[in-house]
Hints:
Helices cover 67% and strands 1% of the residues. The chain is built from 29 helices and two strands.
Amino acid sequence: MSASFFIFVPALKPFAFGVWYQSEPVVAALFACAAAATLCLALMAALRYPVTAALTHPLTLATSALALWSAAASLAAPLPVRSAMGPPQTGEGVLWYASLAVLTALTLALWQRRRVRQAIVGSAAVSGVTLLVLNVGEPIGSPWRPVVWPEFAALLGLSVMAIVASDKSLRWPAPLARRLERVAGRASSGPGPLRMAAALALGGAIVATSQNKTAIGIAAAAIPAMLILAQAIGTGRTWRALAVATALGLTVAVPAGMYWLGTAKGLESPLSRTEMILVALEALRSDPMLLVHGAGWGSFNDVLYSFLHRVRDVRAVTETWQQSLGSTGGGAFHTHNTYLEAILSAGLPGGILMAALPVTAILCARRRSRALLCAVWVAIAGLLAAWFTLPVAVPFQAVAFAATAGGVRRRRSPVGTGTPRHLATGIALIVAVTLAAGSVLAVRVAADSERLLAVIRSGRPPSPDTPPILLWDHGQGGSHLWWIALDLTHELAAKGQNGQPLTESEVFWFETLLRAVDRHAADLPSSIRLKSLTLIMRDELATKMGDPRLDRLREWEVPGWSQKLFALLDQLPDRVDLAVPFLDLLVTSNNGPVAIRVGNELLLRNPDDPVALWFTGIAMAPTAEWGNLGQARLLRAMDAGVERVIPLTPELRNRLHELRRD
């Protein structure tokens, strides 16, 4: 448990590996620590250590229920393995929540042991201070900075508050306590005020330096308000009900506040969060069965590809969506709302179970520090509605859960419970093996991707240890292959636009990656974003990479360009903007008949396709036979909203208005 607080160490550049080097090694370390914790539980159960109460505690059951339901719902997801492993940027998935459940159970079982508790609290404090120093002292890009985003520390700081406030062994030294008692009275000299002061000081410093304005605002408003209310009415049943209601209310109030700040005040970050929420709601509206089982963890980026155009103009660049080579693009990997992410990933039951986690912590809070602990969990409930969690914070969350409950009483298992004991041991061993396998898989895929990326950037041909099928990730959708191929495509397209020649190695690897992407999309479970790359790479090959070394590849691939376009439109029928590069090239290269043929095929799919109307109109307008029809299609394209996809100059817009009047 103490070691789990330091899983951020593999994210430091001297020790990191993988494409997403600040998350993948941490995810692997998290799964490894959770596997070790599960083995501990299995051994404790086999040796009749009292773990039954910890395994059946409401907090363990709540986290386990979320993990189990996520596992069951993943069977209906397009990519079950991706749902189990989570996206590489965070690792949030089935194994993530299994790790949370296991670490919570082990801490519950051990919390009542004073020396163990002191070691856990001390390790959490040291790790928290270390992360604070690195987060504040090291600039972005420093090899000693564990995470690019400083905002991640907010949830970690709130968890540290709960951990420190629950350590009942934290007391004033006896001589100092006697002096304080004479000066300030018995109440102030007790351990309670010391724990509260230490928790607020350490946890508050971490939150304040996180630069997470949402967390700072929620904590500054919710924690003092809840503490004042506790002083006024006590911390009985009524106060606890108010705490639960406040926590649930914040899950709605925080997104509503983001919407107001984004739309009324024009703030970019709140607006992007609103857009992400609207995209997720569009996905749920388009397929109500997602409310039952979800699309699997790690699916939001695919959802973003499919539905962002329904929310706003895909040409605008915001935090939600950074255009990737002017076509399908790459954007957010999370809704930035943990509850909505759970609904999108595991259905409505997943969202309910996610909301139940802070509520269960409030209901299980130990009496001695109930006021502060419940206030902290109210703040955490609000923060989860506006941010995502990184893997480095998972051990802190698990210990915060167990510390809030004060652990479980140490009672020997009664005689005659051999079958349940053996069952608990067997289940724990299965979970341990699964978590260990997840850790090994995370390390292997990350190491393979790093090795391949190093070979490409060095300009060398494939080495004997190049990964088979160029990064087979065992069913996770090809995210690593997507990133490496997109990165090289972006680099070569930029060189082509600047008139720079390509090297033989770059030409070789572009063709190799193009073939690898095609093969993965055709033969292996693939994400929407990897499938989109089959079109993006051809778009850039035909429109921006003019190097003569690519002529042979261009002659071979461009004739099949339309097939890739139609194949992707089968997956994303509403993404009419995907046809823009292909049709634009046909029109500008005087291939009007081909543009008309392809555009008419698109219009058979969607008679109101603004892109097909626009380019067929451009191709038809100059001809004597089809001139009137071409002008009519241009006007129809305007009515269908072509300006959401293709920017029009004021002069062209005025000419179209004049044409409409005529």
